[in-house]
Structures are given as C-alpha cells and as structure tokens.
C-alpha cells in the first residue's frame, strides 16, 4: 500500500515578515512513522528544525504529540518550531481554543494564542509591532546559569575570532556556553570558527551583549550549534530560556525584549517567572510554504 501523503508547512517564527526569523517545517502525521523516516524528512528539508505533530484525543484542551529534529539529530526541546507548530494549528482552524498542549520529550508544554490587540497591554511588548494577527506564547522551563568547568577560555575566544569577552558561563539544561561580549556591535561582528566549536563539550555557543538604551531592546544574542547540524540558529527559543535567567540577574528585571542578531534576525518578548522557574516566550509567525511529503 502506498504511503499517505503527509501535509507540511514551512513557517518563519519569531517574525512578522516572510524570509526573516527562524524557519521550521511543520508536518502533520495521520499515521505512525519510524524514526529513520522522521530523520530523513528533516534532512531533506535541511533547515534548523523540522517538527512532527500527532493528534491525541480525549483531553480537555487540544493535545498533540510533538517531536523536533535538526537535519542530523532529534532534540529534547525547541522553541521556534513549537511556535511554528502552534501557529499552523491556530491559523488553519485545526484547533478552536486559545490553548494547546504538546506532549514532548521535555514533558507537557502549554502554548497560548494571544490577540495582538491584547498583547499591547503587556509591559514587554512594543505597541508598534502589534498591528494585526496574534501572538503565540510558549511556557518553557527556565534554564539555570552555572559556572563553566571548561578550562578553555582561550579556545572559546579563538572560536569567536578574538571577540572581547566579558564573561563565560554554562547553561544547565541545554549545556551551552553563554558568552557575554562587550557590545551589540561585537555580537553582530562575530565570525565563528565552526570547526573549533564542534570540538567543544555540550551543545553550542550563545553570544550576547547588553543593548544600548536607544535600541528599544534589552539584549542582543546569536547562537551557534554546528554539532547539531545548525551552524547558526537564526532565532533560538531555548537559548533565551537561559538568556532570560542570565540577564535577569544582570539587569534586575524579569521582562525583556530581545533581538537575535543573526542575518535573518528575530524578536522575542520574554517574561521570567522566577518563583516557578518558567520562561514565557512570545512572538509571531508567518507561513511561507505548504505542500505534501509523498514518500
């Protein structure tokens, strides 16, 4: 029996403009597929993340199984592909409520649809950005900042082509290096030595710097993850679960507007719930393609 075609969408997440933000492929599964097939499809799309949705019946809120794959490996948590998946479910009418639950390798994740007209009341949102459509809010676990036990400051500096380093920490959950640089310009100017980064322990390298007051943002960042087949992740939600923790202590606040300064760029509105150790990531998305996987 021939395989039933699998409907897919490509969505640009954490942006209001097509071909900006971070692209994710969202595949709607109506039958089980083995892991080799899932990984092969992700490799075929060859973008930072491909995710797969499977409806789960019999729950009060709409619930879906959700798995995320880079071109080379399955990952435990992904922010932008979760936002992309929720965007498709909300915008296509596949769910009729404003809340979705995703069953994932990181537990049950709750996502909310927030009309843009309401979102302007948030302390961390710019009214000029809430022109139409809706925001999607992800409820993710905070990632704790810990001291780095990697005795390789010179190697990290070399991998960042000698960028001026203020501090180096590690993230507990994602096992990234978080490197604070001196300025926004230094973050933008980084030309990473990816061959060197692949040899580092952990997942990847986050670089970040405080934003100048006139920018309208709180901090800038970029994220490099060549070990997982993603040389530079255009906008990384999970990295911001750590960045929220880091900059909360530095700036003494819990609400942020963050700019990921990759070539595609992206904006995240963030709230850190310190008491419950949750990070709420809010953003928009744009559907740019749709079709079917035929094999």
Automatic annotation (TrEMBL):
GO terms for cellular component: cytoplasm. It comes from the Eukaryota. GO terms for molecular function: isomerase activity. The active site is at 49. Pfam families: PhzC-PhzF (PF02567). Keywords: Isomerase. Coiled coil: none annotated. Belongs to the PhzF family. PANTHER family: PHENAZINE BIOSYNTHESIS PROTEIN, PHENAZINE BIOSYNTHESIS-LIKE DOMAIN-CONTAINING PROTEIN. This is Uncharacterized protein.
């Amino acid at each position: 029996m021939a395989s039933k075609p699998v409907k897919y969408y490509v969505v640009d997440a954490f942006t209001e403009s097509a071909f900006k933000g971070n692209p994710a492929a969202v595949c709607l599964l109506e039958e089980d597929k083995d892991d080799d097939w899932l990984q092969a499809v992700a490799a075929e799309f060859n973008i930072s993340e491909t995710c797969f949705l499977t409806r789960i019946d019999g729950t009060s809120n709409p619930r879906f199984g959700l798995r995320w794959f880079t071109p080379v490996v399955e990952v435990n948590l992904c922010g932008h592909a979760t936002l992309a998946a929720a965007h498709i479910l909300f915008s296509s009418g596949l769910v009729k409520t404003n809340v979705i639950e995703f069953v994932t390798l990181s537990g049950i994740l709750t996502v909310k649809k927030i009309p843009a007209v309401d979102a302007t009341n948030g302390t961390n949102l710019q009214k000029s950005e809430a022109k139409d459509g809706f925001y999607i809010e992800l409820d993710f676990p905070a990632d704790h900042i810990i001291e780095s036990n990697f005795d390789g400051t010179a190697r990290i500096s070399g991998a960042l082509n000698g960028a001026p380093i203020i501090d180096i920490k590690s993230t507990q959950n994602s096992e990234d290096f978080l490197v604070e640089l001196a300025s926004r310009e230094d973050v933008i100017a980084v030309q990473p030595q990816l061959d060197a980064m692949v040899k580092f322990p952990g997942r990847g390298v986050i670089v970040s710097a405080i934003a100048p007051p006139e920018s309208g943002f709180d901090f800038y960042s970029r994220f490099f993850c060549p070990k997982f087949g993603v040389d530079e992740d255009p906008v990384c939600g999970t990295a911001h679960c750590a960045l929220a923790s880091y900059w909360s202590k530095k700036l003494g606040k819990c609400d942020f507007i963050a700019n990921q300064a990759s070539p595609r760029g992206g904006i995240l509105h963030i709230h850190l719930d310190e008491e419950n150790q949750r990070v709420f990531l809010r953003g928009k998305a744009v559907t740019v393609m749709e079709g079917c996987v035929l094999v």
